[in-house]
Write a structure and sequence with these properties.
Blueprint: E1 41-49, E2 60-65, E3 88-92, E4 98-104, E5 116-122, E6 130-135, H1 146-149, H2 153-157, E7 162-163, E8 169-170, E9 173-174, E10 184-187, E11 191-194
Organism: Promicromonospora thailandica
Family: Belongs to the intradiol ring-cleavage dioxygenase family.
Domain Intradiol ring-cleavage dioxygenases: 18-109
């Protein structure tokens, strides 16, 4: 048998395995970056929906964020909830696709820039994790962020949280279809670029 194939073989279609998020990944109080009653605490919450608009009951979200002063925490032991703010949390969705985090409002990491949460999403039907951002509604616009400036108003709106009457932040995720959330790709050394899941 020859070691050289006469022509290139087509790639095998990708398949997802799982999700198995209920095993080992969730941990107690993973969505609570700060204690209840912490001064400046805010609730970030929303719903994850698929392309048909149905809730995704088995997704998992992670957030990474700056502290209120715009500093990026650099501390190991994020799985430990010992009262030290690490800027990282993990939440799974419930049967209605809902999730929530209790955290601090992030500050801008650069003067004049819009503060945001980095978000990583894992869900059924995805071959890899998805990356996106959830911006604070105050000051989020083309003049305050290069990514927001690169998007039209409709796409930009998918990345901006809504301040609710109780002060919490609502941010819904749509994996595909009408109102699809803008997702990002990260090329090594090139920064973030847009990558629509449905594209």
């Amino acid at each position: 048998m020859s070691d050289v194939l006469p022509q290139p073989l087509p790639p095998t279609p990708g398949q997802t395995v799982g999700p198995f998020f209920g095993f080992a990944l969730p941990y107690e109080r993973g969505n609570e970056l700060v204690e209840a009653g912490t001064p400046g605490a805010v609730r970030l919450h929303g719903t994850v929906r698929d392309g048909a608009g149905d809730p995704v009951p088995d997704a998992m979200l992670e957030i990474w964020q700056a502290d209120p002063a715009g500093g990026v925490p650099a501390r190991s032991g994020s799985l430990l909830r010992d009262g030290t703010f690490t800027g990282w949390g993990r939440a799974e969705t419930d049967r209605e696709g809902g999730y929530w985090f209790r955290t601090l409002t992030p500050g801008a990491t650069e003067a004049g820039r819009a503060p945001f949460f980095h978000v990583t999403l894992f869900a059924r039907g995805l071959q890899t994790r998805l990356f996106t951002r959830a911006y604070l509604p105050e000051g989020a616009g083309p003049a305050t962020d290069p990514l927001l400036a690169s998007l039209d108003a409709r796409d930009r709106a998918t990345l901006v949280t809504v301040r609710e009457p109780d002060g919490s932040l609502r941010w819904d995720v749509r994996l595909q279809g009408e109102g699809e959330t803008v997702f990002l790709t990260y090329d090594e050394g090139a920064g973030a670029g847009r990558d629509g899941v449905g594209a």
